[in-house]
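BACKBONE STRUCTURE TOKENS:
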Amino acid sequence: MILGFHYHQPAALQDGRIRTSGPQGRFLDSLARHCERVVCFLHTPRADEEELLDYTLASQNVELVPIGPHASVPRRLALAWMHTVPVRQWRSRLDAILIRGPSPLLPAVARAAAGVPAALLLVSDYTTGMQDLAGPRWRKRLIRAWALWNQRQQNRVAARSLTFVNSHELYVKFQPIAPTLVETRTTTLTSADLWPREDTCLTPPYRLLYTGRMARAKGILDLAEAAISLVEGGEDVVVDLVGPPERSDSALEEVLAMAAGRGLAGRVRYHGYRALGPELFAFYREADVYVMPSHAEGFPRAVWEAMAHGLPVVATRVGSIPHVLEGPGAAQLVDPGDSYVLAEAISNVIHDGDRRRGLIQKGLTLARANTLEARAAEMVVSICEWIGTNHAAAGSASPISSGVSR
């Protein structure tokens, strides 16, 4: 199968090799193992994004087709026709196209690929978390209006496509919209990444870890407030924040100022962006508790990474997190936006050894069952089966069992 792919994360060629972000690169390599070729319609990076292209694809059967610069969303929308010219040029050679979303150009790419069997991989919802947007009220209203428009266009594509969603919340939402709907789990882990351990929190200071975007909607202000209140109450904890800063969001600066203003600057440490792989995984291996305090989520890949590295997880009850973790008892869950309850949950995990070790073992069990090897194969098989059932006349593809197929 020759599979097209689009998402808004950029990529670039360097010395004849494709470089992109770690999560996207790992995903593409995993798809390539089950396809004859993967053709990626991706933006070229801005200068400030070059350092985020920290992964070099290993697969030789992945081709990069640049679709123009990763400019501002309004500019990309204004030039959507130009950005999607390469998709139109390639569509007669594609057996299917996988479009990850939500994404600004998802509707335009789907139109440009008209006649090609399309699959969507939806991992979040632009309309959630609007209350955490930075900026004046008029800007928030404008962004919300665009997000609603984009969602309506996306739903029209889903109505005629195979649609994967990575959370039960999205699955319920799309049941009346998408006639062919598959709930999946998105991950960046391979089986080689698993790093089992039996326990953490053996000696203070206890290291709390958050990895991800430094955004208000991720709840990092709640985490800082919770950690500071724990320290002021006598707990010996530090917080490590790892991830890229969010443009037009002052949450990180507010977190650091909050800690400094209460004389605890050394207790909240920002380490910047770290590449997916050994550089990032070192933080998981040195941590005692992983905290995901988001106000809105699908299902964050960082939770899988934490559980794969033997960390007990404290997370908010948002998105698909409770659906995946609460039944198996694999995380300590709290309601979002309450730093006091978050601090109490962290303290309980630190001091209740039986509870903590149970969370670690249950989390490892879930992580072992959710590797890229398993998920990519399932996704490609689903696409091939869907093509075979709904596009048999085109003779596009046939189901695969393993390896390269056409």
About this structure: The chain has 15 helices and 16 strands. Residues 393-406 have pLDDT under 50 and may be disordered. Residues 102 and 200 are 37 Å apart (CA to CA). The chain has two domains: 2-187+371-394, 191-368.
